Amino acid sequence: MPRCFSRYFEVHVDHSYWIGGRDDVIEGTWQWASSNRIFNFTSWARGKPNNHDGNEDCFEMDINHHFEWNDQDCLHTQYFVCELNHSQMRNYLRLMKTLTAKCINQEPPAKKPRFKELPSKEEIEKLALARTEPRTNQQTVWGVKLLRGWLTENKYSSSFEELDETILNDRLCYFYASLLTKQGTDYSKSALVGIRSAISRHITGPPYNREINIITDKSFMPSNHVITGKLSPRCTAFFQQALQYPKPTIWYAAQPIGKNKLASMMSRISEEAGLSIRYTNHCLRATVATGLKKSGSR
């Protein structure tokens, strides 16, 4: 290839290009694919063609060899060069001139923004709620509804979210102690823990975002003692290790049960009880979920 031609490609082009030659008809006899005419000019790179792996029957102007020719696998995907006669070239240049003029006169397209528009406060709150499990949201609504109902029945304002910690703790003490199911029975400790968690999620989430913890903060220890009962007041964990020698008011130690021991609880109970089936904690969860669904709960 003339040096001026290859120099132009080196400056303005950054790809290799098919230029329509092949030797798949007779190996080693290169001809143009469009006319089947044998070449009367070649510009092979040094050491080319070499028919690497016996499967290089097409050739390219190779960017890695200063755009001299290189034989290549015909299935290789890349750009290509087309041949035009004088009439076709004039039409092509006329079209490119028209398109160039239109591009110059046309306003550049607006740059696509990298980020969304600033969301409103309400949209942020909806997004935060949407990223919480639906079942958790239902439990939160249920727990808050219970507290609002109790506050209204006892002539308090139903808006408790901004109450001072001392007042809120006092309200919760009486609330936990007054709770009854629809059947008139006391809630189990696990149910009370669930209600407390629901209220905690409500006041610490949007739009209130209070930086208090009604479960672990010392200012809420009195109300938590109403729930924990025989649990150790020196430990905030709900599952605590049982005392070897329980006291009349305290049955559990100030150390929480480890997660591994909790995870194997049902398996150990099954073995010690001599059950025919070895149950797991997940079995209990599935049984409760099935029972709730059959009862019509959502």
From TrEMBL:
Residues 17-83 form the C-type lectin domain. Signal peptide: none annotated. Keywords: Disulfide bond. InterPro entries: C-type_lectin-like, C-type_lectin-like/link_sf, C-type_lectin_CS, CTDL_fold, MAVS. It holds the Pfam family Lectin_C. PROSITE patterns: C_TYPE_LECTIN_1 (PS00615), C_TYPE_LECTIN_2 (PS50041). It comes from the Eukaryota. Gene3D superfamilies: Mannose-Binding Protein A, subunit A. Coiled coil: none annotated. PANTHER family: DUF3504 DOMAIN-CONTAINING PROTEIN (PTHR21446), POTASSIUM CHANNEL TETRAMERIZATION DOMAIN CONTAINING 1 (PTHR21446:SF12). This is C-type lectin domain-containing protein. It comes from Mytilus coruscus.
